[in-house]
Design goal:
mainly alpha, 6% strand, elongated, 57% helix, four-stranded mixed beta sheet
Length: 446
């Protein structure tokens, strides 16, 4: 007789989920990340015309928003999370847990820190995408965004320690306010060396940090955060000295280097030029994609100057004063005025500004009335201001002196317009030979 034994079905053993998973997918951490993304997104969207289209401007505005608004938010979020067990009354229960105090703190703090970094990453990605489709030239740089992400994580860890130490519900908003003041004041202090230790330091859009500056800033802030965590949770408090020494070394390096932490962007020293025009038109390489628009805007002016002598060789667009045979191109920066989202806002006004720079009398304290009338005629011929008719109508309704000056200007415009092409080119050649002269001697009359 054979006994048949029925095999029991195998039961699938479910592995216990990691404690971080529950913290990461539920509770306060996802809301903190959403708040970070929303805060930075709104702050960037409000002034988008001032950065959209320029990689350097986008980087600076994202960096400013992340440090001025993101760091206080990260401090408050970490502080609120740190006081959670005390608010729930489970602090004594956690004290009996098998895991050490450091592991317990990190298990609560890391999900918040990671969600805050994720929110920052979303806002940064959207800003870069908004610039990409209308970028005027240049390339994005990643050192500063990565360092900012690390700074936000360190702020969340530091806030977690404060929340565990201070038993007060208003600690989180007060810590955020204190962080806002400290970061802002330290970053704007141009007289002391403290600003080199602040994650936020005012620089121009033509400046970029040296390659190691973001890493030194991460070591400085990360060392302080790690020292605070270990001093609060480690059994041997002396272990906190190790990250504190690293932070001190990084801070000393930042302070000693000072202004050497930033350098002029090599791309800002280069130009892209259209050599088919007279004068040639050069645009800073950071905005090289804008050259066709600038050339088109100045096409009427350059066509009227064809064959004219004594002109500058080119319109230049580099930091510093133009060379002896150059004239400065009307300003493209700061973005948000003459250029918005990769487009010239008023090509006519831009051409008028270029024509005014050709006259070279911007440094004159006073110009003779006859020279002023001649300059007005040349300006009207090359690229009149879109507001010229409005100004003429105002002068026509003014007193006798203004009406007389208007009559002289109108007569000079008429005489220049009535010349033949060859005669006008010869006269303009003589006129531009006197560029920069403030007196009446030498300037040809009309």
């Amino acid at each position: 007789m054979t006994l048949l034994t029925e095999r029991a079905p195998r039961q699938r053993v479910r592995r216990p989920r990691h404690p971080l998973r529950a913290e990461a997918v539920r509770g306060f951490a996802p809301w903190a990340g959403a708040a970070m993304a929303l805060t930075l997104g709104v702050a960037l969207a409000v002034g988008s015309e001032r950065w959209q289209g320029g990689w350097a401007e986008t980087r600076e505005h994202v960096h400013t928003a992340a440090i001025i608004l993101g760091v206080p938010l990260a401090l408050a979020a970490g502080c609120w999370q740190g006081g959670r067990e005390r608010r729930r009354g489970t602090g004594e229960l956690l004290a009996t847990a098998v895991r050490g105090r450091t592991a317990v703190l990190l298990g609560s703090a890391l999900p918040v820190a990671l969600w805050l970094v994720a929110g920052y990453a979303v806002a940064t990605a959207l800003a870069l995408l908004a610039t990409w489709y209308c970028a005027m030239g240049g390339v994005p740089r990643w050192g500063t965004p990565l360092a900012d992400a690390a700074v936000l994580a360190c702020a969340a860890l530091s806030g977690q320690v404060v929340g565990r130490l201070v038993a007060w519900r208003l600690t989180a908003p007060l810590l955020a306010a204190a962080g806002y003041v400290v970061v802002g004041v330290a970053g704007h202090d141009r007289r002391g060396s403290v600003r080199y230790l602040s994650p936020f330091a005012e620089t121009s859009s033509t400046s970029v940090p040296v390659w190691w500056q973001p890493w030194a800033m991460v070591a400085w802030t990360g060392g302080l955060a790690a020292a605070a965590v270990l001093a609060h949770t480690a059994r041997r408090r002396a272990v906190a000295l190790l990250p504190l020494v690293a932070a001190a070394a990084a801070g000393t390096l930042l302070v000693q280097t000072g202004e050497g932490l930033w350098r002029t962007d090599p791309l800002a020293r280069r130009q892209v030029c259209d050599t088919s025009t007279t004068p040639q038109i050069c645009v800073n390489a950071r905005y090289g994609n804008l050259l066709p628009q600038v050339t088109e805007a100045l096409s009427g002016l350059t066509d009227r100057l064809e064959g004219v002598e004594n002109l500058p060789v080119r319109f230049e667009d580099r930091p510093g004063r133009p060379g002896p045979d150059e004239v400065e191109l009307p300003m493209i920066t700061p973005i948000g005025w003459s250029v918005v989202r990769g487009r010239l806002t008023d090509p006519g006004e831009y051409a008028w500004s270029a024509g005014m720079t050709l006259q070279g009398r911007g440094d004159c304290d006073e110009v003779a009335p006859r020279v002023s009338a001649v300059d007005d005629a040349v300006e009207y011929h090359l690229a009149p201001s879109p507001l010229r008719r409005h100004f003429d109508e105002q002068d026509a309704r003014g007193d006798a002196a203004r009406r007389a000056a208007l009559g002289e200007r109108l007569a000079a415009r008429e005489r220049l317009a009535s010349m033949g092409d060859a005669e006008r080119r010869a006269w303009l050649s003589a006129y531009f030979a006197t560029r920069g002269e403030c007196g009446r001697s030498g300037v040809p009359s009309l």
